[in-house]
Amino acid sequence: MKYFFILFVSSFLANAQIKTDALNLMPWPQSISVTNGSFALDKNFKVNITFNPNPRIFARTSQFLRRLDGRTGLFFDQGFVTKINEFPSAQLQINCSKAGNVGINQDESYQLEIQSNKIIINANSDLGAMHALETLLQLLQNNSTSYYFPTVTISDSPRFTWRGLMIDAARHFQPVDVIKRNLDAMAAMKMNVFHWHLTDDQGWRIELKNHPKLTQLASDGNYYTQEEIKNIVKYADERGIMVVPEIDVPGHGTAILTAYPEVGSKLNFDKNTYSLERNSGIFTPTLDPSNPKTYQLLSEIFDEVCPLFSGNYFHIGGDENEGKDWDSNPKIQEFKKKNNFANNHELQTYFTMQLIPMLKKHNKTLMGWEEIMTKNLSKDAIIHSWRGANEGIAAGQSLVNAVRNGYKTVLSNGYYIDLMLGVENHYLNDPMPKNITLTAEEKARILGGEAPMWSELVTPTTIDSRIWPRTAAIAERLWSNENITDMASLRKRMNVISLQFEELGITHIRNKEVLLRNISNNQTNTALEDFSNICEPLKIYSRNSEGTEYKTYSPFTLFADACTPDAKDALSFDAAVTNYFKNKSSENQILVTDYLKKWVNVDAKLIELSSNAPLIQPLLPLSKSLSDLSQQLLLKIEKKQTVNPNTLNDLLEQCNSKNHADVELAVYNSLKKLVLAE
């Protein structure tokens, strides 16, 4: 009887209607309808593919089966999907009308229908079918004994065609496995453009057989072979992702000039040689736009690099060229005068225009950061909009300028994940400008957006924690309806998705423990983890602007490297304080004071750990300030004692210090509310 009851309850739960807001889908689909029912999974579950898709769908469907089997442990009878119409009676039918082409402006739509006895995916191309499989995986539910899919109907397509992630492999080299696991995560979030920043002042990362000096002299031995590049491009293509390479010119040119100083803008290049930059920042080495040898070299480089990439776009950088070496070189100044260039911006436009036919020869469209845009630039170029308030420009203005001047554009301002800002800053940033009137034609030139991951302060150990899960929110902004903006829903869904990234090899969770063990000298580090859950790395490049000066070879194994934006206990504490001020019930008070007591204890434990862990020492002043303030607030809240306001304010400001261990307390604003409260 007991066994029957368990079966009855399980059956009831499996058949109970799942509410839409209980689903953890990212990005959220354009249209979804949930009905009262479920599709029960068992070991007999099979997949069948019909019509004429690209063969990539077979590997992706096989991977879907392995991931689904890994989550459920059902030991599916079907191992791999290898051909069309292999199992006509299979429960999951995938109908693809044609083979998709990887790139932008492609049909990525799909329809997914889950019935109680079958699942149907209809897509015009395999690109849409692969997106549908990711959605299906996210729909998986379970009760105590079984796994199932809720019965739903989904019709979905992306809002923007360019949904990208940029990884900088020049400042800190990112090995092949880093790139591949992030491509897998991108595919899971329905992102379709991988922008690969391959050269900068700190390194040249592409093997060139005709110009071996570039890797011999300017890579420190860290570069991708041509075979590795081809393999990654193929890997991306199999996941519906286009790879856009970037060779940054004419500025950010230290690496290329280390190998070929003769095309640099310095006077007496034979005496004033170049060497790889070991610091972060903006530097003066710039290619000489007046020297024919510059264009000969670049043409030869493009001739060898372009065939490695199947996509139709090539990024030439073009940003942050201060032109100091141009200004100090009489030959370049004479060239400007001879060609009636009014300023360095016009000179750079001349330079950029010379590259267009070099790339067009290989069927590549030139793309560059917004500094390349002038009235004389070809309208075929794509403008990558990146500057905003931090650069003295109104948010979104550069994007508006680009589309009004007739250029297609991609937005990155607001999506810089290396700034260590919280997810809300990215999620509520929309490529389509608000309160600015654009024509339908101008709106059509906004291709989408891209999240840049600059790597001055990240290594292969930490890069995943800087990209994910925040980039999942950016992926949703670029795919889903503009009205999908609920932060509570986003955080709930993102927490679930974040855990699912682990099955793809993303290390954003597990590597935190690796770093904390190193910091604690392999001691029990519960207190250290608790402290990391309320601390965040310094933001907007302030970590490297004063105090500690990081070089490319500096250690990135410190407490700041273990911390992430959106510190989880800080978010919980903020919610507890908000609820406390809404209703000062005993229950809400306890939620607040439990945190304060916890931080007093954390400080004591960190002091204890620090006796055998030198890397904990820099944390102690900030931890002590938090502990001291917490004790005063406990007297105020729990004991109802009058506390000297000057003491509270002094301690509060100590908690606002950003001079310790390159982190800041993410609970400061909520602490301030408690201090100021009557």
Q: If you consult CATH, what is the topology of the largest domain?
A: TIM Barrel
* Residue-averaged pLDDT: 94
Number of helices: 25
Query: Rg to the nearest angstrom?
Result: 27 Å
Tell me the strand order in the biggest sheet: 12-9-8-17-16-15-14-13
Shape: globular
Distance between the termini: 60 Å
Fraction of residues in helices?
40-55%
Q: What's the name of the CATH homologous superfamily of the largest domain? A: Glycosidases
What would your notes on this structure say?
The chain is an alpha/beta fold. It folds into three domains: 2-156, Chitobiase, domain 2 (2-Layer Sandwich); 162-482, TIM Barrel (Alpha-Beta Barrel), CATH 3.20.20; 511-676, no CATH class. 40% of the residues lie in helices and 14% in strands. The protein is built from 25 helices and 19 strands. The strands form four sheets. The chain has an eight-stranded parallel β-sheet. Strands 1, 2, 3, 4, 5, 6 and 7 form a seven-stranded mixed β-sheet that branches. Helix 12 (397-404) links the parallel strand 15 and strand 16. The relative contact order is 0.08.
